[in-house]
Structure formats: C-alpha cells, structure tokens
Amino acid sequence: MSQLARRVAAEFAGTAFLVAAVVGSGIMASRLSPSDTGLALLENSIATGAALIALITALQPISASFNPVVTLVERFLGVLNSRTAAALIAAQFLGGLLGTVAANLMFGLDAVAISAHARTGPGLWLGEIVATAGLVLIVFGTLRTGRGERIAVAVGSYIAAAYWFTSSTSFANPAVTLARTITDTFAGIAPASAPAFVVAQLAGGTAAFILIRLMYPSVAPAALAADRKVH
C-alpha cells in the first residue's frame, strides 16, 4: 500500500471514530441525563477529548489531522501538496459521515436522520472562529516547536475545554459539522446552520495561519525530522 493510501485510510478511520465518539456519547449522555443538559455536555466533552487523545496517539505516525481546516493549513504551510491535501480532506468528510451513521445505528436510530437542531447567530459563529483558531494554534504550535509527542494530550484537552468556553460547543471542524447534520440527536446541527459554521471555521483557520507564520517563523529541527519521516 502506498504512503498516500495509508494516510487516506488513517484519516478516514480516525475521523469516523472521532465522529462516532462525538455523536454516540451525545446520544448516551442525553439518555443517561435527560433532564440535566450541563451534565450531558460534561459527559459528551469528556468522551470526545479522551477519544481524540487515543486516536491521535495511535494514528499520528501515519496521519492524524481528522480536520479539513488543519489539512488546509498544512497545505498552505507547504507541508502537503495539493493532491495529498485533497485526498485527505475527502477521506475526512467520508469518514465523518460513516461515523455518524454508525453511531445512529448503534443506538437503534435510523442510519440517517436530518437534524432539526438549529444553531445560528453571531455569538455562535464567533464561538466557532475562536474554537477553530485555538485548535489550529494548539496543533501547529506544538508541532513547530518540536513537541509532537505531546500533541494528542494537547488537542484532546483543548477540545474538551472548548466544549465549555465557546458558545458553539466547539465543532471546529467542517467534516464533523457536515457529519452532525445527519443525526437528529444531542450532537446534531440543522443543515441550514452548517454553512455559516463552516465559514466561521475557515475564518478561524485563516486567523490561526497568520498567527502561526508570525509566532513560529521557523521550525524546530526535531519537528523537521519528524515531518520528513511522516511525509
């Protein structure tokens, strides 16, 4: 199997398991704590953060972005070529959709159920800008300073926290956003709300890209060595 095929498989599987964790834990939380939204969100955020730590730890030696915004920033930083970036992004979107279908079926729901959960308004869009910008800074700030071995804990911890400090509960990922439109559950988002979330996520990624170029103009030798090994 080629290196690109291995990376595509890793992004597909990783994003599928990530979305299954987000949606599945949301369903479980809403069933276990039906009258306590705060507790349900806590359960959802812990499960998501823990899943991210595990998935990044396992798949990072191959590919572990699981997020089109992160992959686009990699492309604009010159880490990936356009063909590789396009293949990884396609895998992320397809994996996310499969993850939602799997979560729905695991809990006895229809494989696809369009969400009626409207999430809209300037406050939520700003929340997505902040959430995505922070995520991208965490990813590349960790990598470009040669501390790639810490990225799993850094990203998982950030996302678990961002569930709470952002108004949008930190989707921060276009593939996850699309995937969550096909589950009418605690984690769902109405299709009409998704485009504005994606635009906000791209804006957050753009802001983070600018900050990364300003704050990390050079890459630590350890990070360069790791990058050559993976890519």
From TrEMBL:
Alphabetical UniProt keywords: Membrane, Transmembrane, Transmembrane helix, Transport
Membrane-related topology note: Multi-pass membrane protein
Ranges annotated as spanning the membrane: 12-30, 50-73, 85-103, 123-143, 150-166, 186-212
Pfam family, one: MIP
Keyword Transport: yes
Gene3D superfamilies per record: Glycerol uptake facilitator protein (1.20.1080.10)
Subcellular location: Membrane
ATP-binding among keywords: no
Family, as annotated: Belongs to the MIP/aquaporin (TC 1.A.8) family.
Identification of the protein by name: Aquaporin
Provenance organism: Sinomonas terricola
